[in-house]
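Example 3.2
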Amino acid sequence: MAKEKTDPKVVFEHLKPMLAKHADKLAVVTDSEDNYYLDTNHIQKNKKPLYFGSAKLRAKYVSFYLMPVYLKPELLEGMSDRLKKRMQGKSCFNFKEIDQELFTELGALVDAGYQSYAEQGFVD
């Protein structure tokens, strides 16, 4: 049985809350119907805030970026092969459909990333 196609907007609306739950301690740079983008309040040596993550609606999928895994790749240890297959590069995951099991795993990774940033002093 073929999987039913999911509107990328619906996928975006499932992914956005994973980031938004941390918005009270981060800086919301963009909150639109196709882009949700968070920075930390930590200013880097280049005088720009440290990026935390974002969800970006594309034509046929949603890209989910999570910078803490770029800075601390060990956060990815133990990640399922199914989630690993969604990775593009070092800190981006692409999704075309709703997969609650993967979304639960990704949500835990977002929380671990936030905790990692807190331990490094990038967020309170």
